[in-house]
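Hi all, posting the design record for the shared folder.

TITLE: backbone redesign
STEP: 1 of 1
STRUCTURE INPUT:
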């Protein structure tokens, strides 16, 4: 069974003038040979055989050139239960910060309020996990008001 770790990483960008544009989500732009397209997706990696999912999620985030103080497990489920054994685990990155490495692919910081129009303007394929991750982040914050300060 393949296990995919996905990270919903939101960065606070104080350099942006408009306050409603300061909360930005990290979106990776990667060439995916199997899909035959360049894809927009959440930071993600396949977990190694005995790797903990939280460790795989931390590795996925590091590959973007960012790190996080903490990762919170959100949910998991089958990506395509009718045709694949791949399971995806979603994590919310808390207190995201720039790391020291440069990613081997393009990583965008997109104001979360503009994610829809931005994605359509890019004209690239979008992994459905992007929308699922944003939904899980919103659901988590709504059902855990004590975490309201988490971007």
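Okay, here is what came back for every position:
SEQUENCE:
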């Amino acid at each position: 069974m393949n296990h995919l770790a996905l990270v919903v990483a939101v960065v606070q960008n104080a350099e942006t003038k408009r306050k409603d544009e300061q909360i930005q989500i990290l979106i990776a732009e990667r060439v995916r040979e199997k899909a035959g397209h360049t894809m927009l997706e959440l930071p993600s990696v396949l977990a190694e055989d005995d790797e903990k999912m939280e460790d795989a999620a931390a590795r996925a985030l590091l590959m973007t050139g960012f790190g996080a103080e903490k990762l919170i497990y959100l949910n998991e489920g089958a990506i395509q239960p009718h045709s694949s054994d791949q399971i995806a685990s979603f994590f919310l990155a808390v207190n995201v910060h720039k790391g020291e490495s440069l990613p081997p692919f393009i990583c965008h910081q997109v104001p979360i309020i503009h994610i829809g129009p931005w994605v359509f303007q890019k004209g690239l394929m979008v992994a459905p996990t992007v929308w699922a991750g944003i939904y899980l982040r919103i659901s988590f914050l709504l059902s855990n008001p004590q975490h309201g300060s988490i971007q």
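COMMENT: The beta strands are 3-12, 23-32, 37-41, 44-46, 66-78, 87-98, 106-111, 125-126.
Let me know if anyone wants the other runs.
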